[in-house]
Every structure is written in C-alpha cells, then in structure tokens.
Amino acid sequence: MTEPRSGDNSAAALQVFDRSLVRQRRGRSDLANYGFLHKHIANEISDRLQAIERVFDNALVLGGRDGNFAQTVTGQSIGHVITTDLAPVAGHRISFVSDEEWLPIAPESFGLVVAGVTLHAVNDLPGALVQVRRALRPDGFFIGTLFGPGTLTELRTALGEAEIETTGGLSPRIAPFTEVRDGGTLLQRAGFALPVTDTDTLTVRYSNFFDLLRDLRGMGEANTLHERRRVPLRRDTLARTAEIYADRFADEDGKLRASFELIYLAGWAPHESQQQPLRPGSARVSLADALRTEELSAGEGTKNEKS
User: Fold this and answer.
1) Domain membership flag for residue 7
2) Is residue 278 part of a domain?
3) For the chain, what is the total number of helices (H) and then of strands (E)?
C-alpha cells in the first residue's frame, strides 16, 4: 500500500453524491436477501473473464462489501484476491476499507482489477479510473460496470410526474447515469489500451411498487445525491407515484417493470506486446478499395443515387 494519488481533475470534481451517505447505505445493505443485481453482474463479469483465457496471479475487487461478489468473479484462474469497499457489511469481512476516489494502492500492484456495483456513485469517475489504471501492472486487465441512462427510467418518470403534481416542484431523486458511448472515452482518458464497452438491459418485474423500493434500499442504492431534499418523501407523493407507475409500466398480468441498463467497461494497462494501431498513411490498401467504392477528392462530396 502507498499514499494514493487522485485523478487530474479530482480537486474540482462536482459533488454529485454524498459519499458519507453512500458509506452508510452500503454498510446497512442486505445483499444476502437483496443482492440479485450484484449476482447477475458478477456472473456476467465472470463469463467475460473466462473468455480472455488469462491467468492472473492476483486481483483487486472494488465493491466487495460482503465477499459474495469476489467469490463469484474469482471462481477461475486467479490467485490471491484482495477485496475493498467504502464500507463493509455487518457480519462480513473485506481486506480493507477504502474510497474509490482515493485508493491506497501502490502503482503496478495487480494483474487484474474488477469493479463491481460501485463506480456509479463516485464523484470523480475519470480520476477513479486513472487510479485503477495506475494500480495495474503493464498488460494488466480491468473490467467493471456502470449503470446506463436506461436504468430505472420507469421510476424516474413516475416519481417526477407525481412530485410535480403534489408539490409543484421537482427535487433530485435518481442519480445521473453514464452513456454507453462515453465508456470508451473515459477509459482512453484514463490511459487504458484496447478499451471495450458493451451494454445489456435487465428487466425485473415486481408485484407492486413498494417491492421495488424495498429492493433498492436493501441493495444500499436509495437516494444519495448531494443536492437531495433532506426531508422524507411526502405520503401523497409516494401514493401518486405508485398510481402512475402501475398505470404506465404494468404488463398484462399486472406485474410492474423496472429496467436496469448495465454498461460493462474493459481495458488493458498499456504494454509493448499489445496490438498497436497503424500509423496514419501506412495502410497498403485504401478504404475505397476495401469497400469497392469510388474514392472522391476532398470537396467533391458524395453521390446520391435513386433506384
């Protein structure tokens, strides 16, 4: 371990999340009963790790608050595993407690870093990724997940409309999420090579609206926005939200849909053995020849044909 180094812009990072509240919510989470989303993501990451056919002598798991995520992900060719989180869950042990925005990790310490359900609640995501990249040995691998903007769109819509109707205003209730097209850019900015992003959407169905809220609280994912309203949600607002949700987002059998868009990020710490892009102008075959099209000079524009 060593003195952590933050990202280049961490000092000026916008305080979107109340990190002390994030710590409290995670410490009180009950993933044994409400960790279905963590298990799904852990299984997906495990499958992706198996596909790269690489043996890692050690790994750092971020977001390993109850140990189950690390156990699922590392059930393959990985040696020593270290787990860390902003807060441990009562009754479970992790290797050490740390903040993803301030990782006490020596440079080039790990062959693999895995980020579970954790990076979506940091204020300085580019800085956190820079620290992850620094923690990797050359040719080390990172894989993690974020929530995309399709996450909880049903709840965002119903809650927003209900709050406007009952209070005449709108307060921050659901966190902003990263666009999938920004994932590769974030990895490149952090210094990763060969960045890859992909996404999938998990749709969960509930018997009633309050079961969804219970799951979010159990996962430790209730509202932690810094600019949140510091008073409980009014009962009439909550009741109206349930009505709108049931009216707009119920299937024919009456079950309510809740969407979770999951963005998976992967990249490598740079190494000379990795495939390198060609220098500009060094290609032996022109793009026009490859596509069997006519190459136009600059300024000619394109040719449109109608059949």
Assistant:
1) no
2) no
3) 10, 7
